[in-house]
């Protein structure tokens, strides 16, 4: 009977981990929360930049399962999770380009504001995918 309990607890844990709805702990500073992204992004450009710069940690679909993710102390997040859909443009801009903790800074690598808007447009498209 005790063994069965362990199996049930183990199974519940496995399911909750595989769903990965867990929200990473980063917080955007106030000035980003109210920031507007005015440039119009291009999805094709965004996809190319994402695959080149971000996929290694975030995974092709933004599930947080890229090959480098396992070596991270912080889970990179799941772009398709419910909590993710609540971020506004400024918050996404902050975490994507300024970074926080193990999330690198991309202000120099992706310097063009149009390119930044393209990456954000692509992330938001990934977020809509089921
Ligand atoms: C070296 C691994 C790594 C790379 C490369 C990387 N990220 Fe991240 N990213 C992270 C980690 C780790 C976090 C969680 C940070 C935290 O909570 O402190 C994160 C968080 C994020 C989040 C918030 C996720 C959430 O669920 O709250 C977004 C959006 C994001 N990154 C976008 C990008 C974009 C866009 C790129 C490429 C331009 C990129 N990342 C490249 C590791 C990476």
Structure description:
This protein is mainly α. The chain has a single domain, classed as Cytochrome Bc1 Complex, Chain D, domain 2. The protein is elongated, with a radius of gyration of 17 Å. The site of heme C has 27 residues, from helix 4, helix 5 and helix 6.
Helix content: 40-55%
Would you tell me which CATH topology applies? Cytochrome Bc1 Complex, Chain D, domain 2
Which band does the percent of strand residues land in? under 5%
Number of strands: 0
Keywords:
single chain, 130 residues, mainly alpha, Cytochrome Bc1 Complex, Chain D, domain 2, elongated, binds heme C
Concise synopsis of the structure shown:
The protein has 130 residues and is mainly alpha-helical.
Please give the structural blueprint.
Elements: H1 2-19, H2 30-33, H3 43-53, H4 55-58, H5 89-98, H6 113-128
């Amino acid at each position: 009977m005790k063994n069965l309990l362990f199996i049930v607890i183990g199974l519940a844990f496995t399911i909750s981990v595989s769903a990965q709805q867990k929200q990473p702990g980063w917080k955007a500073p106030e000035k980003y929360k109210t920031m507007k992204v005015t440039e119009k992004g291009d999805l094709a450009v965004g996809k190319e930049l994402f695959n080149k710069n971000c996929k290694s940690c975030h995974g092709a679909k933004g599930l947080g399962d890229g090959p480098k993710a396992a070596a991270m102390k912080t889970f990179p997040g799941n772009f398709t999770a419910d909590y993710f859909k609540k971020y506004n443009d400024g918050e996404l801009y902050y975490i994507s380009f300024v970074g926080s903790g193990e999330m690198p800074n991309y202000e120099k690598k992706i310097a063009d504001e149009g390119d930044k808007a393209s990456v954000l447009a692509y992330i938001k498209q990934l977020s809509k995918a089921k």
